[in-house]
Amino acid sequence: MVGAVFGLATTVTHATSVWGLPWAGLVLGAIACGGMLLAVRLLLHDRWGALATGLGMLLGMVVISGRGPGGSVIVPNDLLGVTWTWTVAVMVLLVAAWPDFSRIRRLQQEQAARGRVAGEASADGS
To answer: Where is the chain membrane-spanning (predicted)?
Structure first.
């Protein structure tokens, strides 16, 4: 749900220019969506929650990207619109696919502990 809200809000504002900077809306939207994805991933310690949030963002973006009933288009097929679409998709992919280093570290510590126990057992047996 949060992902869909962020996806909708940032898709509507991605083409906003601030102080004459045409890419400001895109950069601020990417920071907001990336921050939300990162927060969900870090707080839940789960890639599936981050993936669900990201899919909500993508779904919200796709739903309002088409031509509206009045003929208006929120995400036009120009450089800014295509960049916005791929930016969100790549962020979702990166955050969801990022490895869990704490898990890797824990497995390495367990293997080292098993190696020490095995080494002590062989030293006691000889």
So the answer is: 25-44, 49-67, 79-98
